[in-house]
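From the pipeline queue, job 12 of 40. The input is one protein chain; the requested action is below.

Action: predict structure.
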Amino acid sequence: MENPFRPSAGATPPQILGRAGVLDEFEYGLRLGSGAPGLLTIFTGARGIGKTVMLGAAHDVARENGWAVISETATTGFMGRIGESMRGIAEELGSGPVNRKITAIAAAGFSITTQLPPERQVAWRTMGEELLKLLDDHGTGLIITVDEIHAADRGELAQLAASVQHFIQDRLPIGLVFAGLPAAVSDLLNEGVATFLRRADKIDLHAAAVREVEESFAATFSHASIKVSPGLVRQAAEATGGYPFLIQLVGYFLWREAEGNQGSLTSEAVDRAIAAANRRNVRTVIEAALAAASPKDLDFLAAMAEDDGPSLAGDIGRRIGAKTNLVANYRSRLLAAGLIESAGHGKVTFAIPGLRQHLRSQPGRP
């Protein structure tokens, strides 16, 4: 057997753990059609928690139900790219009066790098209406997914939200699924950029139960005839903390160790796999997340790392010598960046597994 673990951004793992029932409302919405609550969904959660994987799962469910899917990331110009994708779907559906109309509307193209100007907004919406009517005639509809909406241009997002709301009001078969970091998504919904999105099904993704990870590892290795003791499987599962990206990383390196040792895993091999997974997590998740942090942000995080659990705002302020208002500013910025999360009144904790240990390992840090 080839290594089934896929520790790369958005790659579909061999098994999605801890997500049973998450897409039930969405799938039910596909059967009901226009206006169903599940067709407006927002996934939130920490980096590496599996938001993009859940978007991929939504794509699969939609396609299995015969719906067309457009998948985008909220970088500049995503509205234009969605417009181009709508035109492509229309062309695939074949010729006919409606399709010719769609093609004519889209002839000038939408692939631009800024917000759509008013005249293109009108063309975009008109083309969307005609495409959705065409899909409706085929007994299907369109799902649009947008990843990383915390990075979205607010103007473009408002354009998309306004158009989708218009389609829903006209009872056209449309679904919209977003994914983004929790604090940024909350700010987005509170800003009034897209008020109707407050009615979306907001799903906060959390770590899987370690017991589920243990059972999954045991079943996967048993199926591949990899010899490993139950105690070592438990150790490996606990090392992931139920964090989806680490589940894939640890599984990947365990598999590699087994390949190099005639299909068996020793205690030393498991230790090496866990260490390799943690190093890769630092390089691909933690260092990337810290790249945009300012020196003051890093001071705030280092002050948090002195605690073994959630940190009090007052303790952080005292350690970095900052007043309450500055602590609040740092806190807000780091929440929006997905580096920390609220842990109750006046408390914060790290949002990314391994971040505390990484900060403690830095020269000059506690």
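Job complete. DSSP finds 15 helices and eight strands in the chain.
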